[in-house]
Design goal:
The complex is a heterodimer. Chain A is α+β, with helices and mostly antiparallel strands. Helices cover 53% and strands 20% of the residues of chain A. Chain A has 13 helices and 18 strands. In chain A, strands 1, 2, 3, 4, 5 and 6 form a 6-stranded antiparallel beta sheet that branches. In chain A, helix 1 packs antiparallel against helix 3, helix 7 packs antiparallel against helix 8 and helix 8 packs antiparallel against helix 9. The longest helix of chain A is centred in the middle third of the chain and has 93 residues. Chain A is rod-shaped and about 190 Å long. Chain B is of the alpha/beta class. Chain B has a 5-stranded parallel beta sheet, with helices on both faces. In chain B, strand 1, helix 1 and strand 2 form a beta-alpha-beta unit. The chains are: A alpha+beta, B alpha/beta. At the A-B interface, helix 7, helix 8 and helix 9 of A face helix 1 and helix 5 of B.
C-alpha cells in the first residue's frame, strides 16, 4: 500500500498546484487592476487640480475685463453729469439717454444710476425722469458718504430700480473742491454671470463662485445665491486658510475637507476689483469621472476575474473530487486487500489441513503395510511390502517439504534429495557403507513433477541399496540434477557390483524398474540405464511439461503406483 | 525395566503400528488414549515414562493441550508424532521433540532414544 501511495499523492499535488496557479493569476489580475485603478484615480485628481486652477484663472480674467468695463461705464456716467447741479441734471434728458446708452452697451449691466448726497436717485438708465427711490440705507452709499474713495462692490441685493437681483459697482461723485456730491452705480445682473458660468461646459461639473474679499458670495453656479439668503461660500474654510497662510497669492489650488465635503478648489483674485472667483470640484464628481474612465478596463478585469474565479473554483472542486475518489479507492483497495489476506490465511490453513490429512492417511497406509509385513512369513513378500512403505515415504516427504515451504511455490529438490537418501539409507540399514554425493542445480519443481521424480529417484536408489552394495562391498552413489535450458537431466551413478551381463532394464520383470519407465513417460522424459564401468541411470525431461504427458501415462503404471 | 509408554492417538491402525514398533524396541505400552481427557486420566493413573502424542484429537482439547496439562502435574518425556511440525512452534513448544508422519521405525527408535537419553 505504501508503495502505491506515491502516485495518487503526486496527482493530488498537480491538481492542487493548478488550483493555486489559477488563484495566483486571479490575484495578479486583481492586483494589476488595483494598481491601474489607483494610478487612474491619481491621474483624475491631478487633472481635476489642473482644471480647477485653469478655470479659476480663466473666470478671474473674464471677471477682470467685465468689471473693468463696468467701472468704466460708471465713470462715464459721472462724466455725463457734466458737473451740473442735481436739480438740473435730474431733468436732463440728454444725461438720462447717455446713461441708457451706457447700460445698453453692456449686457451684464442691469442699470446705471446716480444719487445725490442724500441717497436719492436722480438719474437712472431705464427710466426718465428717475423714480423717487432712496438708497441712503444701502451699504455702498453709506460707505462712499463716509469717505470711501475708489471702486466699491456691494453685497448681493435686489435692485430698487429694476427689481432684479444683482450687485452694485459704485464710485463716489465729488465736486471741484472734493466735496461729496453723491454716487454713481452700475447694477451687475448676477443672472448674466450665472448663465455665463453655466454655459462653459467644464469637466468634473465644478461649482463656480464669485465672492467678495469678505467671502460674501455674489454668484454661485450651480445653485445660484439668493439675495435674501446668500448662504456660505463653498470651500470657505479652505480659502480662508490659504489666504491667511499666503495673503499675496492671487491664484492657487487647494484641496481638503470643508463644510463636510472633500474638495479640490482653485481660486483667483480678479484684477483691480475686490472680488475673487473659485472653482470647486467635489469627491462625487471626481469619482464619477474616475468610474467613467475605468469602466472599460474594469469590465475587462471583471470578466477576467470572473473567468479565473470560475476556473479556480472548478480546479479546486476537481481536486477535491479527485481526493475523494482517491480516498474511496484507497479504502476499497484496503478492504479488498484485507479480504484477500483473510482469504489467503484461510486458504493457507486449508492447505495445511490438506497436507496434514494426506500425511496422516499416508501414515495409516504405511502402518497397514508394515503390520501386514509383520504377519508375512515369506521374506520376499515382506521386502516387497517394505518397498511399498518406502514409496509411501518418498511421496509423504514431498508433502512434508511442501507443507513447510511457506511462500515458496514448489519443491526445492536438492533439499529433498538429501532427506530422501538419508531416509532410505536409514530404512535399508546401510549406514555409512554407502556414501552419497549430491550435485543439484537450484531447481524448484511443482508437486506433480516433484512426486514423479521423487518416486523415480526412490526406485533407482532403493535398487542400488538392495543389490549394488552387498555386505563387504562399500561404495558410493552420485546423484546429479542439472538444468539444461528448458529441460533437466537426472544422473544416478553408483560404483556397486553392477548389473548382470546382457541385462536389458526395459525388459526386466522388476516392479521398481517398470515404475521408473512408466513415470519417465509421464514426465515426458527419456530414460536410459548403462552398465559400462559403473551403473548409470539417466533421465532427461522437460521442466513443467507434466500435464501434456498425462494422456500418455499407461494405465498399468498408474495401477502400479 | 522396560520403558512404560502412553500413546495418545485416535487412529487405531497407527496405534497398532506404534505398538508393534515399540514392542520390537522392548517398550511396554501401558495405556492408549484417543482423546485429551482420556490421556490426562491415563497419565494420572499410569505415571508413564514416555508419552507418544499426536496433535489432532477429537474433542475440545488437542494433543498439545493434553501434554501441557500432564507436564504441569508431572514432568514426563514426550515425543510428538505429527504431520504438523509448525503447530508446535506456534503453540509455544518450540523445543518439543517431534517426528513427522509417516515415520520410519528406525526414525522412531532413534527419536525415543534421544528423548529418553535427555532424561526428560
Amino acid at each position: 500500500m505504501a508503495g502505491n501511495g506515491g502516485v495518487p499523492a503526486r496527482r493530488f499535488g498537480r491538481d492542487r498546484l493548478a488550483g493555486y496557479a489559477a488563484l495566483a493569476c486571479l490575484g495578479v489580475v486583481a492586483g494589476v487592476f488595483g494598481l491601474f485603478a489607483a494610478a487612474s484615480y491619481e491621474r483624475v485628481v491631478a487633472r481635476a487640480e489642473q482644471q480647477a486652477h485653469d478655470s479659476a484663472f480663466f473666470f478671474a480674467d473674464h471677471g477682470s475685463r467685465l468689471f473693468e468695463a463696468a467701472d468704466l461705464a460708471t465713470s462715464e456716467a459721472i462724466a455725463a453729469l457734466e458737473g451740473e447741479p442735481w436739480d438740473k441734471a435730474a431733468v436732463s434728458r440728454r444725461a438720462a439717454q447717455a446713461l441708457e446708452r451706457l447700460s445698453d452697451r453692456f449686457p451684464y449691466v442691469d442699470a446705471l444710476f446716480l444719487t445725490d448726497t442724500e441717497g436719492r436717485i436722480r438719474l437712472v438708465s431705464n427710466s426718465f425722469p428717475a423714480p423717487d427711490v432712496d438708497v441712503s440705507d444701502r451699504e455702498y452709499f453709506t460707505s462712499h458718504r463716509e469717505g470711501r474713495r475708489g471702486l466699491y462692490v456691494s453685497r448681493l441685493l435686489v435692485s430698487r430700480t429694476t427689481g432684479n437681483p444683482g450687485f452694485v459697482l459704485s464710485r463716489g461723485i465729488y465736486g471741484d473742491n472734493g466735496e461729496f456730491r453723491g454716487i454713481a452705480a452700475t447694477i451687475v445682473a448676477t443672472s448674466y454671470l450665472a448663465e455665463f458660468y453655466r454655459s462653459i461646459n467644464l469637466p468634473f461639473d465644478p461649482t463656480i463662485s464669485l465672492f467678495r474679499a469678505d467671502f460674501h458670495p455674489l454668484v454661485r453656479q450651480p445653485g445660484n445665491a439668493e439675495p435674501e439668503n446668500p448662504g456660505r461660500l463653498q470651500g470657505e474654510a479652505l480659502i480662508r486658510k490659504a489666504l491667511a497662510d499666503s495673503p499675496s497669492t492671487e491664484l492657487a489650488t487647494v484641496s481638503g475637507k470643508a463644510g463636510g465635503e472633500e474638495l479640490i478648489l482653485g481660486y483667483a483674485k480678479i484684477e483691480n476689483v475686490p472680488l475673487y472667483v473659485s472653482v470647486a470640484i467635489d469627491r462625487p464628481a471626481l469619482l464619477r469621472v474616475w468610474f467613467d474612465e475605468s469602466r472599460v478596463p474594469g469590465v475587462m478585469a471583471a470578466v477576467a476575474l470572473a473567468a479565473l474565479g470560475a476556473l479556480t473554483v472548478f480546479v479546486f472542486r476537481q481536486a477535491r473530487r479527485d481526493e475523494e475518489a482517491k480516498r474511496l479507492l484507497e479504502s476499497t483497495v484496503e478492504a479488498r486487500t484485507a479480504d484477500l489476506r483473510s482469504a489467503n490465511r484461510q486458504l493457507e490453513v486449508l492447505v495445511q489441513e490438506v497436507h496434514h490429512r494426506v500425511k496422516n492417511n499416508l501414515q495409516v497406509i504405511s502402518s497397514m503395510l508394515r503390520l501386514q509385513s509383520i504377519q508375512m512369513n515369506d521374506d520376499g513378500v515382506r521386502k516387497a511390502l517394505q518397498d511399498s512403505v518406502n514409496r509411501v515415504h518418498a511421496m509423504s516427504l514431498v508433502h512434508e517439504m511442501l507443507s513447510g515451504a511457506g511462500d515458496r511455490a514448489g519443491l526445492e529438490f536438492r533439499e529433498y534429495l538429501r532427506d530422501l537418501t538419508d531416509q532410505l539409507r536409514e530404512s535399508y540399514g546401510v549406514g555409512d557403507r554407502v556414501a552419497i554425493a549430491i550435485e543439484c542445480d537450484d531447481l524448484t519443481l511443482d508437486m506433480t513433477q516433484g512426486i514423479l521424480l521423487a518416486l523415480i529417484v526412490n526406485e533407482i536408489f532403493s535398487n542400488a541399496l538392495k543389490h549394488a552394495f552387498p555386505p563387504g562391498h562399500p561404495g558410493e552413489m552420485r546423484i546429479a540434477l542439472e538444468r539444461q535450458g528448458a529441460r533437466a537431466r537426472l544422473t544416478m551413478r553408483d560404483n556397486g557390483i553392477g548389473l548382470p551381463a546382457g541385462f536389458d532394464w526395459r525388459k526386466a520383470s522388476s516392479l521398481g524398474l517398470q515404475i521408473v519407465q512408466s513415470l519417465a513417460v509421464k514426465l515426458g522424459g527419456e530414460a536410459s540405464l548403462t552398465t559400462a564401468g559403473s551403473t548409470c541411470f539417466t533421465l532427461v525431461f522437460p521442466l513443467g511439461n507434466v500435464a501434456a504427458a498425462d494422456a500418455e501415462l499407461p494405465t498399468d503404471a498408474v495401477g502400479a503406483l | 525395566m522396560p520403558i512404560r509408554v502412553l500413546i495418545i492417538e485416535d487412529e487405531p491402525l497407527i496405534v497398532l503400528d506404534l505398538k508393534a514398533i515399540l514392542g520390537e524396541l522392548g517398550c511396554e505400552v501401558v495405556a492408549v488414549a484417543g482423546t485429551a481427557e482420556e490421556a490426562l486420566e491415563a497419565a494420572g493413573r499410569e505415571r508413564p515414562d514416555l508419552i507418544l502424542a499426536d496433535i489432532r484429537l477429537p474433542g475440545p482439547m488437542d494433543g498439545i493441550d493434553a501434554v501441557k496439562a500432564i507436564q504441569a502435574r508431572s514432568p514426563t518425556p514426550v515425543l510428538f508424532v505429527t504431520g504438523n511440525w509448525r503447530e508446535l512452534r506456534d503453540r509455544g513448544l518450540p523445543d518439543a521433540m517431534a517426528i513427522g508422519k509417516p515415520y520410519l521405525p528406525s526414525v522412531l527408535r532413534q527419536a525415543i532414544q534421544t528423548v529418553m537419553g535427555h532424561g526428560r
